[in-house]
Amino acid sequence: MNKIKIAIVGMGNCASSLIQGINYYTKKEEKNITGLIHWKIGKYLPSDIEVVAAFDVDKRKVNKTIDEAIFAEPNCTTIFQKEIPKTDVKVSMGYVLDGIAPHMKNHDERNSFAVSNEQSVDVVSVLKESGAEILINYLPVGSEKAARFYAEKALEAGIAFINCMPVFIVSDEKWSEKFKSKGIPIVGDDIKAQIGATITHRTLVNLFRERGVKLDRTYQLNTGGNTDFLNMLNRDRLSSKKESKTEAVQSVIGERLSSENIHIGPSDYVPWQKDNKVCYLRMEGRTFGDVPMNIELRLSVEDSPNSAACVIDAIRCCKLAIDRGIGGELTAISSYVMKHPTHQFTDEIAAQNLNDFIEGKIER
């Protein structure tokens, strides 16, 4: 079987977890796997994914082979698959644009970014020469210009685009139409985790609604110690992130909460947490007779493997769409694994739509 050839922008913790996972599940069989939402999507297994190109701007990753780059600083996620086959695919120097917040320079390079002096490559040429079919966007939060730059390069190269970060491209009608008119699949925006803060919050909100409990107010506060949380100390870069996370919860409430009664968003950077993300969640509501109740929850997860479980499905769904000649936004997988898709559904309906898409019962 032909490999699903992918390119990655941003060789950080998320890329590390994804590449580790591709190799981890190569040695597994369906009867003894854990941690995957789907073992097989169509005819594709996780091991059918191959990284053929990669882009970054950090001097510790540029010109390194991908098996070396995924373990280079400032990456700090859990290493669950140490043995990665040696490859001749090297990380190309990308474009910085707005991909690095100025305040990152004030922090130790071990935890921050160190920009390479290498010349930026011709992205479209690299994509075409590599044979990549799908470009995965793992840029830092707030990289508005950079995200759109790489989306445009995917269009020029004629390859699918999966937008894992909160810049609204797939959910922007103008951008979505560009891909649809060229018959190119896209998935986005802003990846959910397998079991993370947003999906847990959505599940509890939906439980309140289905059980007749009136939700009056809620918050979700997150802390972490990876470069994503360090980057987000610059609050000016968070407008899209906050909107994406908030809308993911608001969309299942029923009667939307006023802005003063819902607070969802990154809270603070704690270096020693590394790639561990801790979520503090509180929900206040009223039950029978308007009697008050509340829920408080603490969730601790390794951030990057948590998202890789969803990306590995998004990649294979993209490949199905390519095989079927479908372009534009893939609604089923986007609504299931993304925080800010064009169409929001409850998670139960989204899961059913995804299974219907995989089985070919619905087009997208």
Helix-strand blueprint:
Elements: E1 4-9, H1 13-24, E2 49-56, H2 66-69, E3 91-93, H3 123-130, E4 134-137, H4 144-157, E5 160-163, H5 173-181, E6 185-187, H6 197-210, E7 214-224, H7 227-231, H8 239-250, E8 262-269, E9 276-286, E10 292-302, H9 303-324, E11 328-329, H10 331-337, H11 347-358
Parallel strand pairs: 1-2, 1-4, 2-3, 4-5, 5-6, 6-11, 7-8
Antiparallel strand pairs: 7-9, 9-10
Helix pairs in contact: 1-9, 3-4, 6-8, 10-11
Q: What can be said about this structure in brief?
A:
By secondary structure, the chain is an alpha/beta fold.
Task: Explain this structure.
The protein is of the alpha/beta class. It has two domains: 4-192 and 305-358, Rossmann fold (3-Layer(aba) Sandwich); 197-303, Dihydrodipicolinate Reductase, domain 2. Helices cover 33% and strands 20% of the residues. It contains eleven helices and eleven strands. It has helices at 13-24, 66-69, 123-130, 144-157, 173-181, 197-210, 227-231, 239-250, 303-324, 331-337, 347-358; strands at 4-9, 49-56, 91-93, 134-137, 160-163, 185-187, 214-224, 262-269, 276-286, 292-302, 328-329. The strands form two sheets. A seven-stranded parallel sheet has the order 3-2-1-4-5-6-11, sandwiched between helices. A four-stranded mixed sheet has the order 8-7-9-10. α1 (13-24) crosses α9 (303-324), α3 crosses α4 (144-157) and α10 (331-337) crosses α11.
